């Protein structure tokens, strides 16, 4: 029994000792754990700091990224912007180009329109000329008709006169008396021959009649054709007339006076230049005074025609020749202009001037056959005819 006890005791003591050892070990472990915990805390703190740092760095990185992103965006924007600028430039150039084109186009269109308008105006003008010409022809035809009526009337009167004369002759049984009733070329109708006319109690005289320019019944009072007759003549020659009735001549101031005083007369001047172009001047009431008035061109009446009114400043002027200076110039126009005319100072016409054989323009000279209003001063005419005719309209 005691042995067992001892054994048991021993075992118990051993067991207590063993527990004590275990407790020690636990304590040691507990210390170790405590230490570990601290370490962990430290580590945690370190990690926290590191984490913070890491987060900050992360943020910086993010902002870096953002910056670079923004930079990228900016670069993109700039690139787009410059692309837009390029496009803008192109568009601006295109707009400018279009504007220029539009201007050019509208200019061209305007020019074309203007051209059309000009052409239209020209056409209208040519039609107007044709219409005027036709109106003139109609007027001339009317005048012709009037002339013919007059001739018929004249012939009827003549027939009656002849009948009467025959009766008288039978009664008187005397020889015939030569007598003319023909007071103007109107009596000879459509004639271009030389006829004898008796305009008043004075002597009958021969005149060339002319029906080719402006109807029937005109008497030629002056004619220039070829320079075959000299026109620079003295007072007496201009008074009496000179030249050849079938060629160049001047009828004479005295006859001109007698004719225009016996009945109202119109004057028709026909001009031809060296290009064979013609024009005319028509005055509806020409009157020439007698010698006591120095054959003053008392009146011309109203002008009408294509040649211009170059004789207007001769109206109311006396006739002058190289030996009779009746003009208003200090010099002698007749001497300077080489002809006889109703010179003023000296005027714009010189139809009795010196004949030239060519189409010459004599600048600053006075002596040619000129009619300033038609071709300008100094141009000489190839041919001229001055015609007069009793006014038909006043013969009522
Ligand atoms: Ca003078």
List keywords for this structure.
Fibrinogen_CS; 2 domains; alpha+beta; Gamma Fibrinogen, Chain A, domain 1; 396 residues; binds calcium ion; 14% strand; 10-stranded antiparallel beta sheet; coiled coil
Please give a structural write-up.
It contains five helices and ten strands, in the order H-E-E-E-H-E-E-H-E-E-E-E-H-H-E. It has helices spanning 2-172, 235-240, 253-262, 333-337, 372-375, and strands at residues 194-197, 205-210, 218-224, 242-243, 249-250, 265-272, 278-288, 297-299, 303-305, 383-390. It has two domains: 33-154; 185-390, Gamma Fibrinogen, chain A, domain 1 (Gamma Fibrinogen, Chain A, domain 1). Calcium ion is lined by residues 325, 327, 329, 331-332.
Mean pLDDT: 84
Share of residues in helices: 40-55%
Number of helices: 5
Major sheet? 10 strands, antiparallel
Bound molecules: calcium ion
- Give the DSSP E fraction (strand runs of 2 or more residues): 5-15%
Give the full name of the CATH homologous superfamily of the largest domain.
Answer: Gamma Fibrinogen, chain A, domain 1
Order of helices and strands: HEEEHEEHEEEEHHE
Tell me the distance between the termini.
208 Å
Structural class: alpha+beta
How many structurally independent domains? 2
CATH architecture of the largest domain: Alpha-Beta Complex
**Overall outline:** rod-shaped
According to CATH, what is the class of the largest domain? Alpha Beta
Rg over alpha carbons: 64 Å
Which parts are unreliable, with pLDDT below 50 for 5 consecutive residues or more? Answer: 168-180
Number of strands: 10
Under CATH, the topology of the largest domain can be stated as: Gamma Fibrinogen, Chain A, domain 1
């Amino acid at each position: 029994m005691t042995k067992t006890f001892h054994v048991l005791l021993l075992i118990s003591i051993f067991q207590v000792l063993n527990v004590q050892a275990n407790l020690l070990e636990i304590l040691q472990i507990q210390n170790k754990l405590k230490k570990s915990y601290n370490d962990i805390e430290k580590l945690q703190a370190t990690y926290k700091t590191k984490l913070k740092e890491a987060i900050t760095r992360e943020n910086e990185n993010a902002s870096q990224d953002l910056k670079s992103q923004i930079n990228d965006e900016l670069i993109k924007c700039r690139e787009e912007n410059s692309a837009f600028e390029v496009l803008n430039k192109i568009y601006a150039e295109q707009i400018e180009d279009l504007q220029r084109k539009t201007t050019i186009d509208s200019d061209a269109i305007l020019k074309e329109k203007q051209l059309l308008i000009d052409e239209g105006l020209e056409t209208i003008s040519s039609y107007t000329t044709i219409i005027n010409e036709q109106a003139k022809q109609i007027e001339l035809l009317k005048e012709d008709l009037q002339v013919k009526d007059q001739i018929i009337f004249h012939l009827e009167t003549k027939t009656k006169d002849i009948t009467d004369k025959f009766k008288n002759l039978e009664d008187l049984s005397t020889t015939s008396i030569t007598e003319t009733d023909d007071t103007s070329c109107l009596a000879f109708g459509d004639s271009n021959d030389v006829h004898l006319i008796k305009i008043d109690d004075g002597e009958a005289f021969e005149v060339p009649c002319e029906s080719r320019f402006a109807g029937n019944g005109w008497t030629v009072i002056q004619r220039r054709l070829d320079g075959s007759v000299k026109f620079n003549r003295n007072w007496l020659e201009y008074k009496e007339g000179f030249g050849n009735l079938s060629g160049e001549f001047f009828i004479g101031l005295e006859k001109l006076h007698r004719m225009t005083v016996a009945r109202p007369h119109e004057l028709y001047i026909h001009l031809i230049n060296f290009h064979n172009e013609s024009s005319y001047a028509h005055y509806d009431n020409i009157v020439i005074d007698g010698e006591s008035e120095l054959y003053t061109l008392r009146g011309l009446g109203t002008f009408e025609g294509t040649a211009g009114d170059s004789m207007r400043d001769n109206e109311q002027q006396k006739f002058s020749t190289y030996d009779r200076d009746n003009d208003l110039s200090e010099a002698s126009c007749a001497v300077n202009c080489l002809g006889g005319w109703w010179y003023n100072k000296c005027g714009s016409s010189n139809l009795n001037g010196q004949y030239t054989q060519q189409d010459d323009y004599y600048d600053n000279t006075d002596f040619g056959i000129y009619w300033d209003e038609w071709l300008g001063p100094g141009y000489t005419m190839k041919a001229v005819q001055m015609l007069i005719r009793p006014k038909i309209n006043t013969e009522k």
